[in-house]
Amino acid sequence: MNFDSVKANLNKQIAVKTINPIQRARLKPSSLRLAINAQCYECIYDKSDIGTWRQQVEACPSVDCPLFCQRPKATSQGETS
Ligand code: SF4
Fold first, then answer.
1. Which numbered atom of ligand 1 lies nearest the CA of 60?
2. Rounded mean pLDDT of 69-77?
3. pLDDT in tens, 32-47
4. Predicted pLDDT at 79
5. Which residues contact 1 (CB under 8 A, 6 or more apart)?
6. Which of 32, 69, 70, 71 to mutate to test the pocket of ligand 1 (most atoms within 8 A of CB)?
7. In angstroms, rounded to a whole number, what is the distance separating the alpha carbons of residues 36 and 40?
8. Which atom belonging to ligand 1 lies closest to the Cα atom of 44?
9. CB–CB of 38/67 below 8 Å?
């Protein structure tokens, strides 16, 4: 079995999961979902505060924000998706 191809694919998957939402949105500029995720991440995420960026965005108190109903929510799988 050729493990080099498996390792390269795994490294690519890990790299995609470790980039932040702003970087992810830049990889696919036509995605409205990724753009909203990036905007909310940039708006509220504080890495010195508790919780993942999704948990912090989900706890956003700004109900008057136009993106409030479309903000990303925390997933059971953590940071991904
Ligand atoms: S929904 Fe909250 S976190 Fe997202 S852009 Fe609006 S104010 Fe910022």
1. 2
2. 88
3. 999 999 999 999 999 9
4. 54
5. none
6. 71
7. 6
8. 3
9. no
* Number of residues assigned to the chain: 81
- Residue 47 tokens read as 């890495």
∠ CA 41-19-66, nearest 5°, is 20
Amino acid sitting at position 37 = N
Global pTM reads 0.77
Mean pLDDT, rounded, of the chain? 87
Q: Residue written as tokens 């995420």?
A: 45
Tokens of 64: 């008057």
Domain boundaries, the chain: 3-70
Backbone angles phi, psi at 49, to 5 degrees: -90, 170
